[in-house]
């Protein structure tokens, strides 16, 4: 795979595979293309060259099907400050499970504007965790999280992988992902 | 999923009620300035009323458009919407529908009292509203397309009217001429049918264009 951002070649000749239950850590200095790669994997970014395969088939041929396979957490939390924590779930029936998974139940009916940055991050993670997508794409997931929440995230990641889920994460901080492969971007 | 998105948009609009109300108040206030500026003579006002109402409605409908996609783009919601399984044109259509329900419909409801205030002939008011109904829908569709295209542009708020107003000109022309036809004892039917035709054309085309613009914006 290769990606171009603006006029600049971000990375080229990149090739990797992630199997069921695997985790892949993207490491590299700022601007090395970690976020760009994650957006491409999510089907949001544009691939300058190469292919993205799922089960041997072109993953982006059916964009709606690919969207159902991935859950993406970017730099922004995509939290609407005017809605309550519960209302911020796209599928209301998942709200209770999600809020419980990241210890947010006490804030369920509070407007999201009252939440701290770390709590908003947890809310975004909660939404992703209950979405049921097999591939989690995480861009600096632990940004702003306290130690207890990082541990909870670790449990969720382990659960997800035990169920055959895949994780691709970009980070500068140590993530609770035992046995994860590393992909270094220069 | 699409109805869920629509409900969420309406809920957000309700929480930020002042934004929604601003367009309506802008419409009523600008229309109320005309009698002050050109004098209260009924025959003069009555003749100008359809044009005044249509132009004011057009400008008022533009007000909330700048934030239609910009807010979602900035906070990452647009990424999540595109990954929700709803095709990009579907997202654009729901956004346009939300814009119409929150801005177009209130404008339509306020147009009748404003028309009375401007001394428009009684028999012309139903035709004005019959024209505004498809007219405001077309404006929402065109507006959503324009808003999707200017996402991420540095001066999106300035660019948007430049993009949408020329496209909306035919709607304005036929909307006003429908009312003029009735006051001139002619049939308003052809004008209204042309407006409906515009709506039928915009209904598939605008979401397709806006959807492509949304995909381009996140890349």
How would you describe this structure to a colleague?
The complex is a heterodimer of chains A (186) and B (219). Chain A is an alpha/beta fold. Chain A is 28% helix and 18% strand. In chain A, strand 7 (135-139), helix 5 and strand 8 (166-170) form a beta-alpha-beta unit. Chain A starts with a strand and ends with a strand. Chain B is 84% helix and 0% strand. At the A-B interface, helix 2 and strand 6 of A face helix 1 and helix 5 of B.
Short description:
The complex is a heterodimer of chains A (186) and B (219). Chain A is an alpha/beta fold.
What are the key terms here?
heterodimer; A: about 190 residues; alpha/beta; Rossmann fold; five-stranded parallel β-sheet; two-stranded antiparallel sheet; globular; B: about 220 residues; mainly alpha; 9 helices; about 85% helix; elongated
Which superfamily, in CATH terms, is the homologous superfamily of chain A? P-loop containing nucleotide triphosphate hydrolases
Give Rg of chain B in angstroms. 18 Å
Could you say what the CATH topology of chain A is called?
A: Rossmann fold
- Which radius of gyration of chain A do the C-alpha atoms yield? 16 Å
Based on secondary structure, the structural category of chain A is alpha/beta
- Quaternary state reads heterodimer
Q: What is the count of helical runs of chain A? A: 5
Helical run tally of chain B: 9
Shape of chain B: elongated
